[in-house]
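Why should sequence recovery work at all? Because a backbone constrains its sequence more than one might expect. Tight turns favour small or flexible residues, buried strands favour hydrophobic ones, and helices have their own preferences. The token representation captures these environments compactly. In the example below, the structure is given first.
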């Protein structure tokens, strides 16, 4: 029996107000109501994971098709920017709880290693090799060693985007929150001062001016 149709909420069901206030992002409740955009939160929730998967596809298909580590890193960076715009710095922390410096260092290490390691085997800088192995149901799988270089570039781009968002964007958020709190304190002090003042009992007019014509008439 559907109880909500008769105006009674069934056990476990949420009222309409709770559905309207449902969080579409993990850190959506940390934003002020005037800064939240439900449309942007829904779009971010629908697009973020798709963009991340597409960035990984570009990373692995960049050797023989358009893409690569840089293009894939840009797509993943745009996904992080979208997550930051929808939920602020707290949402960015939920989306990527990693150290940007660690990503930058790992990416540089992989890229540099992919360029230098071939020299130890008698090759040239950034020389690539193709490795083939039997993948079972997948058939013969070809692996190109330049993939390590692309992975390094991918990590560098993502780490750079994270570093920029956390240093510049998060600082702007903190400054805006501090300004908003200061404005609320000033408005609260002004309202208390206005409530504490009392109007003049004489209506602001001196008493001598009201009695002047009466005294002249008596003369």
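From this structural description, the recovered sequence reads:
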């Amino acid at each position: 029996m559907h109880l909500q149709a008769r105006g009674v909420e069934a056990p476990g069901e949420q009222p309409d107000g709770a559905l309207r206030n449902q969080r579409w992002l993990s850190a959506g409740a940390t934003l002020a109501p005037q800064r939240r955009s439900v449309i942007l939160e829904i779009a971010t929730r629908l697009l973020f994971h798709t963009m991340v998967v597409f960035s990984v596809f570009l990373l692995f298909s960049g050797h023989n098709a358009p893409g690569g580590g840089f293009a894939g890193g840009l797509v993943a960076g745009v996904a992080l920017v979208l997550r930051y715009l929808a939920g602020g710095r707290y949402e960015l922390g939920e989306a990527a709880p990693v150290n940007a410096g660690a990503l930058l260092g790992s990416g540089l290490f992989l890229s540099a290693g992919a360029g230098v390691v071939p020299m130890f085997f008698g090759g040239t800088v950034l020389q690539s090799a193709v490795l083939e192995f039997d993948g079972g149901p997948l058939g013969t799988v070809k692996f190109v060693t330049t993939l390590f270089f692309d992975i390094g570039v991918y990590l560098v781009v993502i780490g750079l985007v994270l570093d920029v968002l956390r240093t510049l964007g998060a600082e702007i958020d903190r400054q805006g929150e501090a300004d908003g709190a200061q404005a609320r304190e000033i408005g609260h002090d002004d309202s208390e001062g206005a409530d504490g003042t009392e109007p003049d009992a004489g209506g602001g007019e001196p008493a001598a001016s009201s009695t002047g014509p009466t005294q002249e008439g008596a003369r």
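A few observations help interpret the result. The longest helix spans residues 147-196.
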